[in-house]
Amino acid sequence: MRVTETVTKNASPGTAAGAGDLVHTADDPNARGPVKPGYDPRLTNGDLVPLPEQKWGSYQIFAFWMSDVHSVGGYVTAGSLFTLGLSSWQVLACLVTGIAIVNVLCNLVAKPSQRAAVPYAVICRSVFGVRGANIPAFIRGLVATAWYGIQTYLASSALNIVLLKLFPALAAIDDLRGHGFVGLPLLGWISFMVLWSMQAAVFWRGMESIRRFIDFCGPAVYVVMVLLCAYLLYRSHWHVGFDLGGTKNGSTVAVMAGAVALVVSYFSGPMLNFGDFSRYGSSFYAVRKGNFLGLPVNFLVFTLLVLFTTAATVPVFGELITDPVQTVARIDSTTAIVLGALTFTIATIGINIVANFISPAFDFSNIRPQLISWRAGGMIAAIGSVLITPWNLYNNPEVIHYTLESLGAFIGPLFGVLIAHYYLVHKQKIVVDDLFSMSADATYWYRKGYNPAALVATVLGAIASIIPVLANNIGGVHALAQYSWFVGAGLALGVYYVLATRGNLKVPSPS
């Protein structure tokens, strides 16, 4: 069956998204365009309306993913796979397979936002209803808040190393028992809040500052990782073994499948709201090309660096180290430690702002467009990131996997419903003007602004995928936890398609 693709819109005049711009915000008077007459103010502000021009090429998409991949979190997640008992080539195969799946899924998510030129939260109005879209926006905002805290914590760990190397006396307040609070020592709190404040300051200065910041981050990490890898290989006299041990629980095929699922879960957050960035793409082809360069190609190079660097820590330091910050800390040179740790810190700040500040900024703004500006939405996420004590969510490989499984359990259903609605139910048709209408006659009003079929499918998918994560004492059930994203996405997709195409909850076709 051939699927038609239709985007009905009448774009209003406004400010163009330049090739070097990241996003436009209502807080920037030079980037704010007039809202189209007739758009309901309860659904509209300068951040959410369709872009009149889309100028991003494939390079801008590639640069986004390069910054996203090159983070301490990405390195730690990749390195944690070595603890599963897989050989190095198996870990490499899992990482490449996982990122290839992410590439395909990102293309699926990208298309509706690129065609309609609106962010993820607004596209959700076509699925959940103009009022119901606040539910996925709120969930995605909370997930981004959690990741914002996690990435800030990882960056603060690097800053800790720099401070201790330069000022050894600070070790006195790096004691959790004597100077600790809710799981973090005083020095950790100082580093965390310093970076928290730095990120908030960069974000507050606007998108041009952010763009310049991330332009440096991705390449900088590559330089440091290449130097770090070369240094460790030299120190090991180029004798590196790739059998890194670890205890394997279950068959090799099962463990590898779980590792692939873990990679998808790691990228599930930015993948879900990738529409926030694909909306700027000059064409869907440009977005797909940028995704290919930024995900499979770029990630393969990144993975090889992680593989060789991690493997080299065994002969050089006598143990397997999966955290690049800890690896840098073992180097004898103070200058190398400071430069390396600071680079990882800056790079993590860059991706944190892009992936975990911009998303909740849009998501929370969508909930109350006239009350919550883009900046206010980002600051809500920043404050929440402290309250969740992220250092307790990402402090060892087991907790890392548990965190990713839990987040994937809630993100998966949102993805499944979105894909089912756009591709299978509404056949790639979007009436853009109705995304901003509260009229009972508008396409996305559904039932008082909510689409019951989408809500039911999301709830069932979330319940089914979170149960295995929480079932720690039930071996057979808990084994499904690593597939929480797939369980939630698949079940929600199937349930929504059935409910939306037949019965009392059937969704009408767009006019």
TrEMBL record:
Q: Which CDD domains match?
A: SLC-NCS1sbd_u1 (cd11555)
By sequence similarity, the record places it as follows:
Belongs to the purine-cytosine permease (2.A.39) family.
The species this protein belongs to is Mycobacterium stomatepiae
Q: Does the keyword Transcription regulation apply?
A: no
Give the record's GO CC terms: plasma membrane
Q: Where is the composition biased (Polar residues)?
A: 1-13
Is Cell inner membrane included in the keywords of this UniProt record? no
Q: Name one GO molecular function term.
A: nucleobase transmembrane transporter activity
Keywords, ordered alphabetically:
Membrane, Transmembrane, Transmembrane helix
The places in or outside the cell where this protein is found are: Membrane
**Where does the record place the region Disordered?**
1-39
Q: What is the lineage of its organism?
A: Bacteria, Bacillati, Actinomycetota, Actinomycetes, Mycobacteriales
> What InterPro entries does its record include?
Pur-cyt_permease, Uracil/uridine/allantoin_perm
Question: Can you say what this protein is called?
Answer: Nitrate reductase
Look up and give the membrane topology term: Multi-pass membrane protein
Q: Where, by residue number, does the polypeptide cross the bilayer?
A: 89-110, 153-173, 179-204, 216-234, 254-274, 295-317, 337-359, 371-394, 406-425, 453-471, 483-500
Could you tell me which Gene3D superfamilies the record lists for this protein?
A: Hydantoin permease
